[in-house]
Design a protein that fits this description.
homodimer, mainly alpha, Multidrug-efflux Transporter Regulator, Chain: A, Domain 2, two-stranded antiparallel ribbon, 6 helices, 2 strands, 56% helix, DNA-binding
Chain lengths: 151, 151
DNA sequence: ATAATGTTTCCCATCATGGGAAGGTCAAGG
DNA sequence: CCTTGACCTTCCCATGATGGGAAACATTAT
């Protein structure tokens, strides 16, 4: 089966299939006499596995771990569960950071008239926090270091 | 004021200050006779503005817009508010996507014994969705195209 | 004078993904 | 048999925000 068919069957773009192969996530595909990559149903199955894990927010590196677990028939289900739950925590943390940003912005926007006058507490707060018109009881949650959250 | 001082005063790394200058987000800094960048308190003020907007999850490109709004004394506060609220929606969408991934994973993990036996519904579901031991009432929310959500 | 610290520019790496070029292959239809 | 079009190959480049590090120069402190 050519890469295009495997791509459509798995939902992984041809580009990404080649990338996964190049980075060692999946083994090198077989080749036809003329050099085309040749995929089996089993390969497609694995690609779909990768695809779904990506949809669940796992990094390619993590998926490498998941594939190893998948193929290791002797691993304990606890190993998989631990990995899943650790990832859940990371996802929830990132979601919460985004929510906090959204709340902070909503809070600012609540105090902005949103009319055609120029006075805007949102901008004022960005320019000089704590000196503007916005009452804020919320505290800043540790985004202060040079290393900052990826939005 | 040298770049290091401006960096510590604004919370923006020297690297990023140069990057913001190179990409045109902030104007080119003045230079001393020997070629060192030279910053004023006003420059630091602007850098802090950028820093806080980044903390609120705005992209550098969006911050360009915010800076223009900041410096335009005639703009309507509605313009700022609209931008803020649009961004809030994007943030909330991303947060929700992460939450959905987390829920899906939790759902799988709930059905995994997490002991030393190898049977694991999490892996099984990744390998062959809908054919495993997991009852799922949840539906898939349109992450099916080749273009996928950034985790 | 020398050592230490700061700054400059330049190149490279990240992570997952896509775009596009230049060239080879294959199948269908003339 | 030959053309056409769809497909495949590899290679390079770009994204966005950030950091690492080298080589060279400047400033400051000992």
């Amino acid at each position: 089966m050519n890469i295009g068919i495997a791509s459509r069957a798995s939902g992984v773009s041809s580009k990404m299939i080649r990338y996964y192969e190049a980075t060692g996530l999946i083994p090198k595909a077989g080749r036809t006499g003329s050099g085309y990559r040749d995929y089996t149903d089993k390969d497609v199955h694995k690609l779909r596995f990768v695809r779904r894990a990506r949809d669940l927010g796992f990094s390619v590196e993590q998926i490498g771990g998941l594939l190893r677990l998948w193929e290791d028939r002797t691993r304990a289900s606890a190993d998989v569960k631990r990995m899943a739950l650790t990832h859940v925590e990371v996802l929830r943390e990132r979601a919460q950071q985004l929510e906090e940003m959204a709340s902070a912005l909503i809070h600012l926007a609540d105090h902005c008239a949103g009319d055609d006058r120029p006075d805007c507490p949102i901008i004022e707060e960005l320019a000089a926090p704590g000196r503007g018109h916005v009452h804020h009881n919320h505290h800043h949650h540790g985004l202060d270091g040079p290393k900052r959250a990826r939005s």
